[in-house]
Amino acid sequence: MDMHKINVKFVFMLSFASILLMSGCGKKQEVLHLYNWADYVKPELIAQFEQENNCKVILDTFDSNENMYAKLKAGATGYDLAFPSSYMVQIMKEQGMLEMLRHDWLPNLIHLDPTSLNVSLDPEVKIAVPYTVSYTGVAYLKSKVSNVVKSWSMFDRQDLEGRMTMLNDMRETIAAGLRFLGYSSNTTNEQELAAARDVIVRWKKNLAKFENEQYKPGLASGEFLLVHGYVGDLLQIQAENPDIAIFFPKEGFVTTCDCMVIPKGAKSIELAHKYINFMLDPKVAAENTGFTQYLCPNKDSYALLDEASQKNPAIIVPEEIKTVAEVNLDLGENNAKYVKVWDEIKSAE
């Protein structure tokens, strides 16, 4: 056999393989940077998106709108998608922090539940696409807490002192005090805010702490007996511990829409649109609702939910309960009044 021909053939094949490697297989993957709440997307869906789009997704998390905003406002760059609540979307929009959306890249917008647009506060979906509709409520251990009243007044229970938590979230927790007193969670009346402050300071004496993350394992393990939290999170831990019960306070509570937005300075804007469109697929939305226990407001996904989710009033909230839910709004310069009250609550003994 002619060894020269074999060597020429080998060199040709090696060169061809190198060309393929440089032009395709070795091409650097595009990276999509997400800034989301913890436990707020099914990991398998991220893996599916990566595979379908030959990209890499990097996920960072935050535990409050204020922390997310502060980080971005301080100059953190590189995020292609963020997931703020509707009132924070308003603030970020007014401050020029968000990119406009291209509807021609989002054909799955047709699946959105139109009722969610009232909560997202961007009815024309110019800058924000509804991701989930969420509510705040209260959860407790049935075997440990007796004489339960579906009211914010449960935080006055001295027999539960040191075994309760409330959210470390300015707007959510001040709203609890306001609604308990019969006031709007968006009031700018200083006397009403002062009255809510006094109520929360009174409740604070019975709390273990203000907490956004540890209340979940704390309630599931029995460290805490009654907690204020996001209902989707509460449903997740209820699945671990059937002794957990959940209620919506009769005086009223906060509902919000967490949205998908593209921050100014995003590097992968087209890929960000692809991710939004992916999450708007009815099958994907149903799967994500099942994992997070937060309702993805996708009207064509509801029939795809399992029977338990469809019948769960904490996921598909009955209309009569929604009547006492209120959306937190951006209050402009009046936000400073809430910051002042929150500082007074946190510093109170």
Q: What does this protein structure show overall?
A:
By secondary structure, the protein is α/β, with parallel strands linked by helices. The chain is built from 14 helices and ten strands. Helix 2 links the parallel strand 1 and strand 2. Helix 6 packs across helix 7.
In terms of DSSP E residues, the strand content is 15-25%
Described by strand count, sense and barrel closure, the largest sheet is:
7 strands, mixed
Q: How do the SSEs run, as a string of H and E?
A: HEHEHEHHEEHHEHEHEEHHHHEH
How widely separated are the two ends? 93 Å
The helix/strand class is alpha/beta
Please tell me what the overall shape is.
Answer: globular
Total count of strands: 10
Q: Percent range for helical residues?
A: 40-55%
What is the CATH topology descriptor of the largest domain? Answer: D-Maltodextrin-Binding Protein, domain 2
* Contiguous uncertain segments of 5+ residues: 1-6, 8-14, 16-26
The Rg value, from CA coordinates, equals 24 Å
Please state the second-level CATH architecture of the largest domain.
Answer: 3-Layer(aba) Sandwich
Instruction: Give the quaternary arrangement of the chains.
Output: single chain
- Name of the CATH homologous superfamily of the largest domain: Periplasmic binding protein-like II
Q: What's the number of domains?
A: 2
What is the name of the CATH class of the largest domain? Alpha Beta
Average pLDDT taken over every residue: 92
What is the count of DSSP helices, taking H or I runs of 4+ residues?
14
